[in-house]
Design brief:
Oligomer: single chain
Number of strands: 10
Order of helices and strands: HHHEHEHEHHEHHEHEHEHHEHHEE
Bound molecules: iron/sulfur cluster
Number of helices: 15
Helix content: 40-55%
CATH superfamily: Aldolase class I
CATH topology: TIM Barrel
Radius of gyration: 20 Å
Structural class: alpha/beta
Shape: globular
Distance between the termini: 61 Å
Amino acid sequence: MTDQAALQSVLDRAAAGGRITKEEALDLYRHAPLHALGQAADAARRLRYAGTEHIATYIIERNINYTNVCVTACKFCAFYAAPKDTKKGWSRDLDDILRRCAETVELGGTQIMFQGGHHPDYGVEYYEHHFSAIKKAFPQLVIHSLGASEVDHMARISGVSAEEAIRRIHAAGLDSFAGAGAELLPERPRKAIAPLKESGERWLEIMEIAHKLGVESTSTMLMGTGETNAERIEHIAMIRDTQDRTGGFRAFIPYTYQPENNHLKGRTQATVFEYLRMIAIARLFLDNIAHIQGSWLTVGKEAGQLSLHYGADDLGSIMLEENVVSSAGARHRSNRQEIIDLIRKADRVPAQRATTYEHLLVHDDPANDPVDDRVVSHISSTAIEGGTAHPELKLISTN
Ligand code: SF4
């Protein structure tokens, strides 16, 4: 039987900012009472953000899916079309992409997440061309996009190293990488759900190269595709080890597998309790990553709200457009006022943030809340990408 006093002692150490081992994290994840986990994680969050611990943040962004054509065929993905499937496959042209950027700016969005399949023809040149066009037209938009998987793919298509690919797309306008494609980093669960994707070690190696070139990123984890608790903890341990060397991961974002329209059969979705336990463990174990993001898009608004009491300091984005996890069944939608209200009801002061987490607008007086009922989450009618997904929403124009 697990010694509750020993568990509490580990929780106390982590709550005070001390480092815990992988074995201790697994023990906590399996056995610590949920309430005690939440208390410790919240204490760790308050300690890290002493002075601004009353604030929880969100960002306004647009997820732009540029193609759903993909050669990687991840089993959990409801978004992709095989290159030969000309009925289902599509790509957006640059004018369409620029129009979506213009709408994002008009609606107060500060960031775009360029996200799509591993198209067999899209090498480094494609991304250079598109990022430079976006930056030229909208220098105020932050391009927080792609991830190690896309880099691995585009470098192979263009016959260059990952380092050269990163240098070139960064020079063309990419500001930072999203944590897409991490899925599950340990070998067994990764091969089970994404057998054609690069290995977890390679994903981390490319992120390390990026961080050392000054391109920071977030990190993610896909929960609920059949992985064990030990594999979940191994995933975050692999991220922590890399972060010890680079310091380049700004945030960790766990989100839950959505079961519709894909090739994984018989998987049981992660429960809200499992999700909240992971948020809390992430805050306690990832002592070298500043931000833990609650993902309300896949787990629901109430669970997202609760995550703010389990160690999360950020609720991610009000997405002007999201199609990836939505293709797999995520049905939660929201708007800016609702996110502001959710945060307030969780007893925090909402603040709109930048990609780099600076507070752009602190909503400390409800009388001054922004009024814009066009800013709502939305799924594009064109259907969209499936799995390198992130928790996102979309702001759409109603005209
Ligand atoms: S998750 Fe991404 S890489 Fe995998 S099949 Fe879907 S679009 Fe392709």
